[in-house]
Every structure is written in C-alpha cells, then in structure tokens.
Request: fold
Amino acid sequence: MTAHQHAGSRKPHPPGTVAWAAADPLRAVLAVIAIITVLTGAIQVPFGGSVLHIIGTESTPETRQLFGTVGMFMVVVGGLLLHTLLNAVPSPEVVLWSGVQKTGAFGAVGIGVLNGVFAPVALLVAFFDLATAVLLFIYWRRISGAQVSAGLGT
Reply:
C-alpha cells in the first residue's frame, strides 16, 4: 500500500461535525466538557484511590466507595448533557440542571478544601466546574429565549 492509498483509507469525521461545531462554538465547547465529565467520572470509579491521593485526601474503603459513587453520577450527568447537546433541539431543562450540578460540585469541592479534606490543588477542579456552570447558564438563557420566541416554551 502506498502512502497515498494509506492516507485515502483514513476514515473522515462524520459529515457536518466541523460545521456543527463552527455553527455554535459554545455548544461544541459544552459537548467537549460533557465528554470530559463522562471520562473523568468513569476513571473515578475503578481508580478512585489514585485520584484521591492526587487531590490530597486519604484513600480508605469508605472514601473510595463515595468517590466511585460520585464518579458514577458524573458519568450519568455528563452523558445526559452530551446527549441533549447532540439533539437537534437541546433540552433547556437538562442544560439548566447540569449547570446546577456543576455549581454544586464547585461548592462541595471548595468546602472540602476549606475544611482540609482536599488539598488546594482540588480548587483547579472546583474552578473548572464553576466556569462550566457559568457557560451552561449562558447557554441555557440563550436556548430558553430561543424556544420561547419560537413558541416552544411552556
């Protein structure tokens, strides 16, 4: 097989992916964040002990169990958010509640750092969640207004 034949055999991205992302960059960024949320949550389930050490807390059977449970919910909420963002018309309710979840995560991790449960490095995660919440609320306002003006609101 020549180099030209090999390059031609690569599977291209699905049609419209780049156009979809370019048409609504905020939606695309939120979709990437949703994927990150799913992946990091999935990592927490089997590898919670290692992650707990990174964020500066003790790894015990109890903390690993709790951390794994949080990871499972991250997979569910991140997956739900991704699912709605990939729909032709995203659900404002899913976007809103995803923003509430990210706000709660920011608060929970921040309180954990203040109480000495987590090392200050965990604030990186907290502020990522806060930034994500802000983006989600901006997007929610935008799509809620669009649906109301189109007569789709309740």
About this structure: The two ends are 59 Å apart (CA to CA). Helices lie at 3-8, 17-23, 25-54, 61-86, 92-114, 122-149. DSSP finds six helices and no strands in the chain.
